[in-house]
Structure to design on (186 residues):
């Protein structure tokens, strides 16, 4: 085999291999995520801790890097949050966090938005170490909810997506300011 042919094979292999962005608490996330023909970039990663326990590592994927949560929420572009759990949590614990996030970041929310959070809560299951939740907002379609690799449904519109993502990157993120800063790549 000629040098040129060998180099071509090596380069083709490198292009096909997934690019790894980083690892946090043993969780490695890809640098990019393909959504409906769009390439989303890993904007940042964060660790959710509760007291001394590591609960999950999350990654926020956006069309372009952004450090301002308000700008992310204002944009009507695809976005995705992936949560890799590091310990077991009940569906009730997850749902409590959703409702707390809604109350803290979307004051005076509509009855329709509360109903959509109720639908989200109905989709949740108990999670254990290694389980993954993924939330993918598609403009004009809604937010796809994936639990343990299975699509549970698509909810709401942009208002729902904004309220959900505000739980992590809104003015009062449930997991805290350090978590928000991590997702925003700060």
């Amino acid at each position: 085999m000629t040098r040129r042919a060998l180099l071509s094979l090596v380069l083709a292999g490198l292009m096909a291999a997934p690019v790894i962005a980083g690892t946090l608490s043993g969780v490695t996330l890809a640098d990019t995520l393909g959504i409906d023909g769009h390439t989303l970039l890993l904007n940042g990663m964060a660790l959710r801790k509760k007291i001394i326990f590591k609960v999950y590592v999350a990654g926020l994927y956006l069309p372009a890097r952004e450090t301002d949560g308000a700008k992310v929420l204002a944009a009507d572009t695809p976005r995705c949050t992936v949560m890799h759990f590091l310990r077991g949590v009940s569906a009730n614990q997850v749902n409590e966090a959703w409702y707390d996030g809604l109350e803290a970041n979307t004051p005076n929310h509509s009855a329709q938005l509360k109903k959509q959070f109720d639908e989200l809560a109905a989709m949740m299951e108990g999670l254990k170490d290694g389980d993954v939740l993924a939330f993918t907002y598609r403009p004009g379609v809604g937010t796809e909810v994936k639990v343990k690799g299975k699509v549970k449904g698509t909810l709401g519109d942009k208002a729902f997506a904004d309220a959900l993502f505000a739980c992590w990157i809104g003015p009062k993120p449930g997991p805290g300011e350090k978590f928000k800063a991590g997702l925003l790549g700060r």
